[in-house]
Structure formats: C-alpha cells, structure tokens
Amino acid sequence: MPIRRTNKNNQKKWLKENSHLKILDLGSTHVNYWREANHFADIVDYREHFKKLNLPYTQITPNDDLPFKDKEFDYVICSHVLEHVPDPFKLKAEIERVGKAGYIELPTKLNDNTVFGCDEEVLGHKWWFEFDDDKQNLVFAKKIDALEKFLSVGSIFKLIDIFQDSFILQFYWSDTIPMTKREPFVLEKKITFLSLVKKFYSKKIRQFFSNLKKKFNK
C-alpha cells in the first residue's frame, strides 16, 4: 500500500526505534522540527541554529529541485508544506525521488478555513487536501474562502489533541505518493464570523426565554 492514514505519535515512536535510518525533516523550521530526524531543510537560512545543535542543515530554494541524491533518505518528513507550494506535483515527485518512505501532514479543509495567519500571498496556503479512502489517493484542489477565519494558530494547538482528526491529515507513504487534482470547490457566498455570532446568540436568547417560560409555568 503506497499511502495510508497514520498517527504522528506512532511514526515518531517508530523512528526512535529505528534511529539508524537517514531521516530528513523537509520544511523543518527552527522551532517545530522533528527531533527524531537527523537532517533538516527549509527555505529559510537556519544553518546557525542547527550548527549549534551539531545537526546537518540544508537551505533549499522554493520551486527548485531538492539538492539531494536519488533515494538519499530512508524517511522524509513533510509536515505542513505541500499546501504552500505552487506545484504540489513537482514537490511530490522530488520527495519520491530523494526518499524511500515518509510522513505527510496537512491541515484539513476545516482547519484551513477557521485559522487565520496563513494567507500570505507568496508563502500562504494555496491548496485544500483530502483523502480518497477507496482509491488510497491524496486529492487536492485550489483553496477557497468558505468561512471567515476566527481562530489563531495557538488556539488550534490547544485543541488539536482533542479534535486531531478534524484539524489534521496524517499519512505514511512508501515508494510513491498517489496524488490527483480535482476541480475547485464552488461556494456562492462566504459565511462571515458576524453571522455565526448572531446565530449563536440568537439561539442562546431563545433558550433563555424558553427556560424562563418553563420556570414560570411550573
């Protein structure tokens, strides 16, 4: 099976048990990188940070081929990267070229449409991803704004352990990453945060008066 759903914690545990593997964290940043990896790469120059940790780091160039040999890594971590790139097919092909297997993590459509702070024109999110369980295939479409965002990234981190399946997609792949592109979603009108607040308080007020009526009718 080239790709399947998994759990990040299970993958981290397996990597710790197989520390002899050559493991690349692609798009590592200098904060949320996987400590189970032994090589790191990002588009930002974090060389000094990883040098202090005595860990190998490679700065990569957006949209260019990865500066690694074919099948150089046993395992490639690609966490919250594919949704940012102009061409997911190109990056997918490069990951398959340099890696034998790995882990992919992506925000769900719900996550992407409730969290603000990822909408930068150049480096922001460009794609929505979902998983076709019947065909065991990653499917992506152009991102649209269906909902006015109202949660910060910090808020999501607090909720993600409880609502993990609602906020992130987690996959293990081996040899190849099956992926297709679909037509964009269509929405006539974006749902605004103000309309959600109005509906919320409207319901609360109705419940209040309903309970009050029941109290006086006793």
Notes on the protein architecture:
There is one protein chain. The chain has helices at residues 8-17, 47-52, 88-98, 109-114, 153-159, 164-167, 193-216, and strands at residues 3-5, 23-26, 39-42, 57-59, 75-79, 101-107, 127-132, 137-142, 168-174, 179-181. By secondary structure, it is of the alpha/beta class. It has two domains: 3-187, Rossmann fold (3-Layer(aba) Sandwich), CATH 3.40.50; 189-218. The strands form two sheets. The chain has a seven-stranded mixed sheet. The model has no long low-confidence stretch (mean pLDDT 89).
Task: Based on the model shown, name its key terms.
Rossmann fold; alpha/beta; 7 helices; seven-stranded mixed beta sheet; three-stranded mixed beta sheet; 218 residues; 10 strands
Radius of gyration: 21 Å
| Quaternary structure classification | single chain
Shape: elongated
Are there runs of 5+ residues with pLDDT below 50, and where?
A: none
Question: So what's the CATH class of the largest domain?
Answer: Alpha Beta
- Using the 3D structure, state the CATH architecture of the largest domain: 3-Layer(aba) Sandwich
The number of helical elements comes to 7
SSE order: EHEEHEEHEHEEHHEEH
Q: Helix fraction? A: 25-40%
